[in-house]
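Hey, can you fold this one?
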Amino acid sequence: MAARHDVLIAQQTPTRRGGQGQRVCTLVDALPRAGRDVKLIYVRFGADEPDPALVANPKVELRELVASRGPRRALTYARHRLAGVPDGWARSISPELVAAATAAAETPGTARVIADGPAVMSALVGLARRRPVIYNAHNLESSFRVGLPDQRLGSPRRLRAAERRIMEAAAESWMVSAADARGARELAPGARIRVVPNVINTDDITPVAPGGGGTDALMVGDFTYAPNREALAFLLDEVLPRLERRGAQVTLRLVGRGLEDDPAARRPGVLVRGRVDDLAAEYRAARCALVPLMSGGGTPFKLLEALAYAVPVVSTPRAADALGLDDGEHLRVAGDADRFAAAVAEIVSGADADADARAARGRAVVEERYSVAALARMLADDDRVAA
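Sure. Predicted structure:
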């Protein structure tokens, strides 16, 4: 009898850069720990090579697809557009992806088919009529995309209709947070919705020694991403001036791409590090980490990462609420610039006597709820949706 395995279909090369890649990679990390072999079929896009840890995992089989161009691709695009798939999703669908997913689903030994993201799930709605397909969501798209730059997704009404269609077609939809799950149930009352949270591999993160390093307040992110740009503007234009008026000795340390040619970030009190090879060194150099997200969907990986390093964290409610974290227990939560600046100043100056103990509790809650090991426990021996 053939070995049972899960098939995961992704629309880009699986790497740990960015939230979408992180979710795919950590899911594939967790499934073998849960006793599942994984066949990961992906379209080569965004990177030439997949994450080395996935390549080295004997429980993971990788298959790369190269999407075609030309008449077949155009016909696939047109067919999905006529079916109501938003333009931005339909452009990601190739005939090779549909064919490979269908063949894998029909291969003996396939236990579950998991479609990663809304474009892939849109491509597999036809397959979902014949056998169960799980939709691995990254956000509640119709909520998350409102207010972001145009991504060829059409009007809010059309986007809601398209998202409802894929959730109703899926045997189960995996949402990243309780808030997204509530919104999904309101949008598609008949759909089967489950919370499968974003996680990180805490085994790869060594906690920073209590006390941190110096007076830096660290923000890590992709600054080409609109919600991170909004968060940075909040820090530069509102929080930093308040820290200066307090006389707080704080350097804002910025790590991530997108600031190379940005004069707004190059000012006194700001250190632009850009992309770095050793992220752990950045956390060791910081006294606290900042996650000032004002918008965006899902759950922020950078908040999980900062907590896992066991540095004191200051967050906006938007980021903390998505993870069900408590102000004062796991991190400091501040909804406006005055309180945000006060929390940073108190941590950096040493006036916040509970900062390091709270950081340790933050690390513990990530290990308990939001680690690869925790996700593996959740998914172990889970055949609720299987062929």
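Residues 254 and 272 are 5 Å apart (CA to CA). Let me know if you want another pass with a different chain boundary.
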